[in-house]
Amino acid sequence: MLLIDCPWCGRRDQSEFSYHGEAHIVRPDDPQALSDEQWGDFLFARNNPKGMHFERWMHSHGCRRWFNAARNTHTDRIKATYPPGDPPPEPGA
Amino acid sequence: MTQVNRLPDGGRLNRAKVIRFWYDDKKYEGYPGDTLASALLANGVRLVGRSFKYHRPRGIFSAGAEEPNALVQLESGPYTEPNRRATEVELYEGLVAHSQNCWPSVGFDLGALSSRLSRLLPAGFYYKTFMWPRALWMTYEKFIRKAAGLGRAPSEPDPDSYDKLHAHCDVLVVGGGPAGLRAACAAGATGARVMLVDEANEVGGHLLLGQHTDIGGLVANRWITERLAELNQMAQATLLTRTTVTGYYDYNFLVANERVTEHLGPNRGDKAPKERLWKIRAKQVVLATGSIERPLVFADNDRPGVMLASAVRAYINRFGVLPGKRIVVLTNNDSAYHTALDAKRAGAAVEIVDIRPDPAGEPIEWARSLDIPIHVNSALSAVGYARGKITQVTVMTLSPDGNEVRGEARHLRCDVVAVSGGWTPTVHLFSQAKGKLEFSDDLHCFVPAAADDATDDTTHSLFCAGACRGSYTLAECLTEGRDAGLAAAAAAGFADTPETVAEAAVEPAPPPASQRHAPQYGPRYGPMRALWILPCDHPIGEGAKKHFHELHNDSTIADIALAAREGFESVEHLKRYTTTGMGTDQGKTSNLNALVALSDLRGAPIPALGATTFRPPYTPLTFGAIIGQERRELFLQKRTTPMHAWHDRHGAVYEDVGDWKRPFYFPKEGEDMRAAVRRECLAARNAVGILDASTLGKIDIVGEDAVKLLNMVYTNAWNRLAPGRCRYGLMVNEHGMVFDDGVTTRLGEHHYHMTTTTGGAARVLNWLEEWLQTEWFGRAKVYCTSVTEQWAVASISGPHSRALLAELCEQPVDGESFPFMSMQQFAVAGIPARVFRISFTGELAFEINVPARFGLALWQALWQAGEKYGICPYGTEAMHVLRAEKGFIIAGQDTDGTVTPMDLGMDWLVSKTKDDFVGKRSFSRTDTARAGRKQLVGLRTETPDFVLPEGAHVVEKLLDAPPMKMLGHVSSSYLSPNAGRSIALALIKDGFKRKGETLEVALTDGGSHRVTVTDTVFFDSEGERARD
């Protein structure tokens, strides 16, 4: 079970959190201007890397706030957690 | 005669007290300190079960967690537990156990016939019967299910209680042998919070096997006592015995199962739980999990009486039991000589068969000095067995390459064969922690590989010490234990002060001269002959003799050869095809020897074959321990409304909606569900019905940007909703699919009250929060608060609802003063209320919201005042019928995540003027805009009172057999008292265009029912009644 450092509460068991997929997918300002392919990409295309993955979590049984985590999908090591809106950490940081 | 094999003294037993127990309905005696296995051996019970596949007789093989044979059904009735290893069950007064997998009895087993038929039960038997011929599997299955049972699951609820505990520590030491004890003391002395966990009933590990082991001038016993005293003085140290660490997960999260009162017997634990599951988050972990002896594989090596040499030694020294009168020790290394010495001293006739050509060294000299015959360069080529006992073994000389036996056959009389093929480090937890294993060519086993700091990105922080990393001498165990303990404490932030180092630096001293024959060390190898699969006078696999590498699942070397011949060469395939290592013992004594066999067959070294991955749990966990207290309401809570007591008093039948208990219907004396629902439906349209709507999800939305949020998450527009007005809205996701609906009311300038479906309340709140916190992070000024439980809601519906409300308030509530789709705040029955004039029944209706604490008072006031109007409480079923009569959808019943508002015929709810809202772009996707989508329509059955089953498929014409084109399914279906017939809603391909068409609904009995496609509204199609 992961130990996740909630940016607001500190380190807590994974069972307090829920996972919400890839982070930093920005909703287009004007979805109507997009082609079906572009909109489809926004809706469905996701990275599935072996290695560093930026993803969204929510402290659902805690402060109920959302944040992002940089997690290595291979080792499960979480390099950083940070509030939504913050840029992702530099690779290797 | 009782306890025929009990030694006159010795063992860690309390001989002052006699314990009586029952095994296979016979009464026996033992002592506190015994395990079931040791007590059975003391009583001369050799046969403890039948093997899994061939039903061969089997006996106790080991003295610990690795036991593959002695699985018993412990206790009976609700307390019964299958597959308990007799070697781990502590004896208590009145214990009842039965052998498993034998019918009708362990001595005479009909299934043993399958042993004769073994050619018909090769490796991969199950897979082959699955594959071909398919029809025969049905026949095999009955036979296999009966024959292959491993114990019986209890059929009654478990009366025991179980518990869970979370714990945190700086250093967790797993294993209480010499290395673990040393590590715990060293780490604890630095001030670190230490936990020491051991699976046995007392710490000591391998030290408990040898009586005379000497450590720094202390016998092992004294040394253990001193270490325990040391730990006891540390306030921050926790010692857990009878506790097995079964899993090692990410970020040093370990699960351990403590058997708290199980060893006392059923019902003797007072209020303490039977087992307690520890969830431990450790900063650092020291694995001191020891090692398990590895057997040798020889002809008929599964006979009862063939035991691990270390087990024989444990029974002699720890339990005061001499398992046999004449013991043959078969070994490829030095460690088994200690068993020979101890057995000889205990009074057994002992002979050693050593497969090495020229064993030499101290243990060999000690054996010679006790006149123990040693047959060198020899192997057992046959085991004589009669009437449940080994009678003799046949010894022959090994060829130099170890592939054959030759020369004269010597017969040694014996009743026990103690066997040792070296030791296997217990690396299960290390492997679970994603640790890499490497094969040691010196030790001929897998050991933990050193971590590579440069590439290691692990979430585990651990140290290994002692036998689990292949360090077998006591001196190594003690030194490594101390070093690992100090290193772990330092890594957890506790510096090793000079004092603690000095304290810990007690080195083991050489044994005093008086104890020359006492083994100084625990398991110690000496040079080993790298041979584990011993030949016999026939090629392996031919003739009647069987070479079992895997006792638990009855797998032989011949099975491995078959698997390899059929192409199952990879270790992972081999494992599954032969089921090696897939028993409840996870192959603790069989995995390595299977690899040896495969390596020989393929001519490839073991490291090139690789090893299978160890997965949790190390030993099986009971469901009770995993579940703990999380049963019934503690697993799934029961949510009730403030009016629940009233519903109880009035005979409500409940329906589960989410976690809520909602009244389903209120039957009167003698009424069935149909009659009650009919009465309720009629009352709500002809008099006044009252519904407890408190469970509806309610979200309070406040802030300057509240309207921006509503415009984003609802498909319709919210800018022009005036304060005090209500509006219905549909929520869709970005894919354009409906997932919730409800009425939202503007309470003030920037203040809204949103309602959601009962089951969707949490989902909708999360959805709103997701938008606020991620898309508009910090920029939108809105706060959302769940107020579902703060408000109790009584919904009154029907022509008399207005008169009833008027009676209880001082406010004019006529249609002009209080119009449809508006909200007013005033007192109802003296209780401050928000009254919403909205309707889910299509009738004139009011939803009266009061603070939850007044819910019951409001309900009772309405009930009393309503009597003269014929007020009738109605439940969720009547509510469903009433709304279906009006064609109102239920999100999640008439939608399934693939339905757009347009599919529901609710285009009028989708704004054409808003630039953007969630899901808008998806409405113009090719798939959502195409023709041929399923659309919501009504169905009228040909027979007016025939109610279609919900979920039934709709087709144009039912054919004799599939395939046929499915047009859709029935989503809602009821008998409608107000429409006077059966009504249904259905999602049907091109449904809107099909109105008037006749279709068929397939029924489960193979028949069908004809239906006509209609509009979705079955009652008051003008919608005048609600607006009245």
Provide tags for this entry.
heterodimer, A: four-stranded antiparallel β-sheet, 1 helix, 6 strands, globular, B: 1028 residues, alpha+beta, seven-stranded mixed β-sheet, six-stranded mixed β-sheet, 27 helices
Q: Categorize the overall geometry of chain B.
A: elongated
Strand content of chain B: 25-35%
How do the strands line up in the largest sheet of chain A? 3-4-5-6
* Percent strand of chain A: 25-35%
The low-confidence runs of chain A, each spanning 5 or more residues with pLDDT under 50, are: none
- Our count of helices of chain A gives 1
Number of strands of chain B: 49
Main sheet record of chain B: 7 strands, mixed
Class of secondary structure makeup of chain B: alpha+beta
Q: Looking at the structure, what is the overall shape of chain A?
A: globular
| Radius of gyration of chain A, CA atoms, in whole angstroms | 15 Å
Could you tell me the number of beta strands of chain A? Answer: 6
For the biggest sheet of chain A, the summary is: 4 strands, antiparallel
Straight-line distance between termini of chain B: 96 Å
Termini Cα gap of chain A: 24 Å
- Percent helix of chain B: 10-25%
Largest interface: A-B, 28 and 27 residues
Which spans of chain B of ≥5 residues are poorly predicted at pLDDT below 50?
Answer: 500-523
Q: Order of SSEs of chain A, N→C?
A: EEEHEEE
- Average pLDDT figure of chain B: 91
Number of helices of chain B: 27
